[in-house]
Design a protein that fits this description.
The structure is a single chain. The protein starts with 20 loop residues before the first helix and ends in a 6-residue tail after the last strand. It is an alpha/beta fold. Strand 10, helix 11 and strand 11 form a beta-alpha-beta unit. The chain contains 14 helices and twelve strands. An eight-stranded parallel β-barrel has the order 4-5-6-7-8-9-10-11, surrounded by seven helices. The protein has a single domain, classed as TIM Barrel (Alpha-Beta Barrel). The model is unreliable at 1-5 and 12-19 (pLDDT under 50).
Length: 356
Amino acid sequence: MTRPKPVPARPVPAPREASDPSDRKAEHIHLALDPAMQPHKNYFDDYRFEHQALPELDYDAIDLACSFLGRDLAAPLLISCMTGGTPEAARINRNLALAAETMGIAVGVGSQRKALEDASTVGDFRIRPYAPSVPILANLGAVQLNYGYGLDHCRRAVAMIEADALVLHLNPLQEVIQPEGQRNFAGLLDKIGHIAGNLEVPLIIKEVGCGISRAVAERLMRVGVKMVDTAGAGGTSWARIEAARARDEGLGDLFADWGIPTPVAIQKLSEVPGLTIIGSGGIRNGIDAAKALAAGADLVGMAYRFLHAANESTEAVVEKVRQIVEELRMSMFCAGAGTLESLRKTRLYPAGGCVE
């Protein structure tokens, strides 16, 4: 019997004029600011709290304080890893860091691969002088462990910005659509385990918009990873962004909704004992943040809402954080939760269903 010929892989679209990482990062910023790259549906709208008409709480006594990576936070919020490697990104990172310090919340930087390969861009990522007291997250792509990176690169990324933890992001969908994408994800689990077992700071595994399943989290736990960031479906579509760069918008539309919705991912991950969960992906406001925490998240990450503000000024980011914190506090008050611990015990109901 004649065996059928294998179907060739979809050809990788030719990159634009330059594929230099700094050019790519600049494109990413401009496209991420485009509302067309945002989803048409927010999955947090599928859930609601039971309103407590008699909350028996003093609003001003509601406590949002928590700790993360050994540092105190005023609220359980993270300005998620976004950008770096361009002058524009340096300004954005500075605004984000100053706001994080002012408001007492955590902050991350975008992939530091560019800085490891071009020392002239290191300053774009060095935000510790602007955020001396809050947790800072370093960031590299996990797939780069299959392209020459190793423990030394991870240590250098952490030391570069005096980070409290390292994020290794998983982004298979982005890589297969990106014109310059790195597509070999084979054997990454063992390499991630090696980093987790030898790095001097905690390792966080993060998706970039498609979510992390319970099964993947359990595999990560077995190799020593104890912290994950859901970055689930419902936030900025990197499928659309990379497809726009590749001039294949149809492909971006096809995969725009691919992934595990963030609230579903959080709920499933909360079933894994000993796992710290950062809930991110499509969180627009303090109500969504409250729902993420009620679903099981230990911390809530947001990017898009802060990127717009950071493109304007530090003050705009501070005001956006202050607004989200107040919305979170209002949600807790009306749900009858005076502490984060009680909020995590508060039940979420289907939006179209009946409360008890």
